Records
---
Amino acid sequence: MAREKKHRSRGRRSPFAAAALIGAGLLLTGGVYAGASAAMASTTDAQTSVTTELTAADGQKLFTANCATCHGMDLQGTKEGPSLVGVGELAVEFQMSTGRMPLQMQGPQAPQKHPQFTEAQIRAVASYVQSVAPGPTYPDSWVTEGKPNPDDSSDEVSLAKGAELFRVNCAMCHNVAAAGGALTEGKYAPALTSTSALHMYAAMVTGPQNMPVFGDMNLSTQDKRDIIAALVFQQNEVQVGGFTLGSLGPVSEGLFIWIFGIGALVALTVWITAKSN
């Protein structure tokens, strides 16, 4: 008598099995990614806490590795770069925070670009330069942050006076709308439409590149503060009346009307003439 073969019963696979398997895989992948992200974040926080404690000694190391080639080990300058004696920490912070330094390439003017160092590193280098060859330093907070002068209870910011001082002393290069302008030999005055108050003050005090130095005999600290307040107000001002056209006044508006307005009338006249013919 033939022995019957036992066949293992094969149950039908549930249609939700594939979905469950995919869901489990996604959960596992998400958990691994979340854990890795948390680990990286903690490492970044640790690095940030370390960089915030940089000192002038750390700044010297950064200077030696990144700046001494052009400015010299003793800050006396070389054929490739000027001396830093007397420029002060304010000038160093301005040049490095705006990305002008380290210099990308030799040219008529150092362009502004994204900074290559963190704020803590920049402050450390500036502190080192200030300790070796002191110069202009950071202003009191009342100058750039609009706070009252603790030594003068009647101190107030005058936007009208600041705008007038800007037109008299700065508009010939930076444009009356602070939109910047061209200078000679490929140089230019940068736009001030997004410049911070600290960097405005630093430029007036240190005179970077083609910028003249405005000492207290030219513009008092209060005058500088008024100019900064007027420019910051202009940055935050809500534009009304349609397109700003660069805020350059009747010149740009007249050019716009001449090209588009009269051009549209000429095109309409030609079309009407061709239609009638």
Note: Residues 76 and 262 are 60 Å apart (CA to CA).
---
Amino acid sequence: MFLLGLAALLLAGCRPATLQLNVKAPPGTNQGRPMYMLVRKVDPKQFAVESYAEVAARVAQPDETVVLSELIYPGTLQRLKVKLPPESPLAVSFLFTAPDGTWQTFVNLPVPGSLDIALLEGRIQTGAAPLAPAKEEDTGAPPEMPDLPSPPKTAAKN
């Protein structure tokens, strides 16, 4: 029993106390309007079935699950420190004016020390490459698309 308690203490000591959250919102995000982001403690089963309206209601009336509520501005890269609740997965939700796809993400245990989230106009970009490290001249503008070669032309058959 003593060893089990010692192991739990050691594991708890290895867990970060905060989550560095980096949110990249290009100028066209949310039709160019600010929006709320909520970071909440969640149960995985609850997360799977909760509606956008249920989450949005927590902006006006936060409950004990809300860890952070923050305005996200289009055209910015916002770096936020989130104090982690003990032993709870998190949901990071973005309240877009017109959500068009994934509007929240689940962060399971163990929670990482940092998390990069890139936004599109009405949804979270999935499968995104990690965000670049912070630079003083960072404007929050999205990276430019590289020039891609044109597909080869084929002769038309008569």
Note: The first helix runs from residue 2 to 14.
---
Amino acid sequence: MRKRKNPFKGRQFTSEVILWSVRWYLQFPISYRDLELMLRDRGVSVDHTTLYRWIQAYAPELERRLRPHLRPTNGSWRVDETYLKVKGRWVYLYRAVDSRGQTIDFRLSTRRDAQAAKRFFRKALARPNTVNPRTITVDRNAAYPKAVADMKRDKQLWRFARLRQVKYLNNIVEQDHRRVKRLVRPGLGFRRFRTAWRTLVGYETLAMMRKGQVKGIGGDDIVAQAAFMNALFNVAA
């Protein structure tokens, strides 16, 4: 087996400091400058621009390493999209949770139409911990019926999957949007689509851990979560 490349090679700071910073930024509503001060209080001097680079580098890598450890989600999908600003323009964050509030998947898109919905559904279905849905609950967005019909026709979606356009049943995913918005707010928006996506991947990944979606790790056990994250990167506790 080929040895995995050390993701911390060449960094000025230790892997422990980097992972601590990444975990705290992605888990709590703080800015890069807030985190810079928190680290300084602990005797570590890191510029906020360096912290930004760490998030961009390690948030997607964290998701990639964590995905195989997720518990299966169920077949009752609650799908919705929320709005975020990137460089002053609105973009759409497609998100899906199951009936227990467990995150199924997410996708950032510049468009809100049937094609964007299909891309999101295909991405969610490709995850190893998801199942073909029995029900898909959405709002009154006309793009969803077309997307579901097209995917059933192309045999990408179970033909007996039931689409429900009932807004109040989607309260669970709409409430979940608030957590994302709360984390985004201290950063005062994003300047680039790629930057936004990489940061959002980190927010969603840490949220899955806090929801107890990682096998063998409690959602409230922050100590075990920190140890698990270190283990993912082969960092000694």
Note: The radius of gyration is 19 Å.
